[in-house]
Design a protein that fits this description.
mainly alpha; about 0% strand; elongated
Length: about 200
Amino acid sequence: MTRHAFEEQLDGLHRKLMSMGTLVEEAIHKSIKSLVERDVQLAEQVIASDHLINELEHEIEVGCFQMIALQQPVGGDLRRLGTMLKLVTDLERMGDHAVSIAKTARRLVGEPDVKPLIDIPLMADHVKAMVRDSLNAYIGIDKQAAEEIAARDDIVDKLFSTIFRDLIDVMTKNGQSISQGTHLLLVAQYLERIADHVTNI
């Protein structure tokens, strides 16, 4: 197989990778929106569409293994395919965390907010941007961008700490807020874990 044909196949995998990343971004966005707006239908959309992320993970894995088996790449080509195999696993887990947020949003439908939801959506915005930028850094082989994106995990960690302190304060002062407060802490933890997966990328 010619170098041109190899690059064409790799480009095809990269397009699928970006599609998978877009679906993950959308899942994060919709899951948080469903939480803020108490929109059960939107939460159900996130849960129902998770199979699309899983299917793309499978297609990319199959494509990578076929290229490795049939073309026996070496050096940088082999490292890129090996990295992509790890990367799609992180993306799939991000999608799972978005589903967990959507399921939490579904549980909280009908409940008034124990506190205004400001920092959680802000945290989600940072995480979504990190997902998109990390994939661009991988495809562009941009080491500097990758290092900067990984450093942005500190912003997410600080937001998580703020959310944790605020919710603990609310639950301490109002025992009736403990159930919802606990669910919101889990949402913040899911977002923090998504950022950790981006850092892996």
